[in-house]
Amino acid sequence: MIDSQKIRADFPILSQTVNGKPLVYFDNAATSQKPQVVIDAEANYYKEINANIHRGVHTLSQLATDAYEASRHKIQQHINAKFSHEVLFTSGTTHGINLVANGFASFLKPGDEVMVSALEHHSNIVPWQMLCEKTGAKLVVIPMNETGELIRSEYERLVSDKTKIVTVNHISNALGTINPIKWMIEKAHEVGAAVLIDGAQATPHLKPDVQDLECDFYVFSGHKICGPTGTGILYGKEAWLNKLPPYQGGGEMIATVSFEKTTYAELPHKFEAGTPNIAGGIVLGTAIDYLNAIGFDNIAAYEHELLEYGTKRLLEIEGLKIYGPEVSGLTQKTSVISFNLDGIHPYDVGTIIDKLGIAVRTGHHCAQPIMDFFQIPGTLRASFAFYNTKEEIDALVEAVKRAQMMLS
Amino acid sequence: MTIQEIQNEIVDEFSMFDDWMQRYEYIIELGKSLPLIDEKFKTDENIIKGCQSKVWLQGEENDGKITFTADSDAILTKGIIAILIRAFSNQKPSEILEAKTDFIDEIGLKEHLSPTRANGLVSMIKQIKMYALAFEAKN
Question: Residue B32 belongs to a domain with what CATH number?
Answer without folding.
Answer: 3.90.1010.10
